[in-house]
Amino acid sequence: MDEEYDVIVLGTGLKECILSGLLSVDGLKVLHMDRNDYYGGDSTSLNLNQLWKRFRGEDKPPAHLGASRDYNVDMVPKYHADFDICHDLHGLIIGEHVSHIPEEIRSYIVSHRTRTTLHFSLNKKFMMANGTLVRTLIHTDVTKYLSFKAVDGSYVFSKRKIHKVPATDMEALKSPLMGLFEKRRARNFFVYVQNYNEADPVTHQGLDLTRITTRELILKHGLSDDTVDFIGHALALHRDDRYLNEPALDTVKRMKLYAESLARFQGGSPYIYPLYGLGELPQAFARLSAVYGGTYMLNKPECKVEFDIEGKVCGVTSEGETAKCKKVVCDPSYLPSKVRKIGKVARAIAIMSHPIPNTNESHSIQIILPQKQLGRKSDMYVFCCSYTHNVAPKGKFIAFVSAEAETDNPQSELKPGIDLLGQVDELFFDMYDRYKPVNEPSLDNCFVSMSYDATTHFETTVTDVLSMYTAITGKTVDLSVDLSAASAAEEY
């Protein structure tokens, strides 16, 4: 605490861990702190007993749900992998959930001879196989710490039914999402998107996608409203229909990413998921930061950000000591005066004894419910994982239904998604606020991340991270990487 750092990072969420890793690789002197010294809070990962205490008070969970320790249920807004580490006279004792604690952090703990909880946080989301997060993993070389498994399927809710988003030409031909003639028109549109090269005007067919809207591009191909709904929300992954009146280039790029990710492992979806769960991701970036000289101080209470007379950040105080710095990176909870509320997310958590019906017995899936299908202002998302991801006992499944809240009644608002789950053993509801920064970093040198949204993929998350990195360093991360570096992910 008596040193001066280029950057102090507060909080160990995924965004903060990625930035800590990137900045350390750049040669900056980084101190990474977390104020939490407890297991839990409003956004923790709970075993079954803790889940029951949070939502059902003093009641005890029924025995048929299995052992409490076999559950790892994510709370809103983030997923936590907490590792309880302590010492006794016989040396280091590591909690049962620790499998790959970074040696650099282990050394720190040993040298300080203290009881420590490593507290890592991120949202329960999938990763696009060719997306920005995977490219960032490869760019930073943390793929050597990780293995992935392809997600079984991606689905879309249309005309009151669940339909698999086609993953092959054969699936497209058989899909009831479109009629025969509509499939022909859609194919012509997909061929245009596939061949489109921003640097080659020949592929533009006379269309300037930076000027014409997505609606105008779609009209030129004569696609029906239902097809537009499917393309815009299940392929381009837009959260609402505002994209229709925005330049078409963004939608085309999103569709190309989906197709490239789908082809990456030739599975049933464009998504992948880390073996051993999402907690592996922040561990990998924490290790990266430590390898490049980053310093970790965990369980530091308060973590008060200090400012000089000009209003610029000058350090962070904890336990009566102040570490000096030039810049601070943090999540919204550390600087509440520099953020504003932009909405809230409603979420349901279900424990089930079966996969979601009409999903081909899939153990890991995403279902997108486009806003128009529900009469909403934004989409609803269903995420399901199972005992194959070590989040529940054998035979049990955990499903999450989430949406940008438009009412104060999550039970009613999330009903369309919950109805897709079939019989549930138990059901819990929760809500959390979303925040975005309102400060000007060039004036105070504070770089605050945006709260996680309701989507079930990481693209918006990493977009925020890369934007923050550019604002902090003035540089852009080169993501033109060799994707074969993640070839180990094919072994699922």
**Can you tell me the CATH superfamily of the largest domain?**
FAD/NAD(P)-binding domain
Major sheet details: 7 strands, mixed
Which residues sit in consecutive blocks of at least 5 with pLDDT less than 50?
37-44, 76-124, 487-492
Q: What's the total helix number? A: 15
- What shape does the CA trace take? globular
CATH class descriptor name of the largest domain: Alpha Beta
Average pLDDT score = 79
CATH topology grouping of the largest domain? FAD/NAD(P)-binding domain
Q: In angstroms, what separates the terminal alpha carbons?
A: 44 Å
| CATH architectural group of the largest domain | 3-Layer(bba) Sandwich
Strand portion, in percent? Answer: 25-35%
Return the domain count: 3
Percent helix: 25-40%
Number of strands: 22
How does this structure look, described?
The chain is built from 15 helices and 22 strands. The chain has 492 residues and is α+β, with helices and mostly antiparallel strands. The chain folds into 3 domains: 231 residues, 3-Layer(bba) Sandwich (FAD/NAD(P)-binding domain); 112 residues, Orthogonal Bundle (Guanine Nucleotide Dissociation Inhibitor, domain 1); 96 residues, Guanine Nucleotide Dissociation Inhibitor, domain 2 (2-Layer Sandwich). Strands 1, 2, 13, 14, 15, 16 and 22 form a 7-stranded mixed sheet that branches. α1 packs parallel to α10 and α1 packs parallel to α15. The radius of gyration is 23 Å and the shape is globular. The protein starts with a strand and ends in a 19-residue tail after the last helix. The C terminus is likely disordered. GO terms for molecular function: Rab GDP-dissociation inhibitor activity.
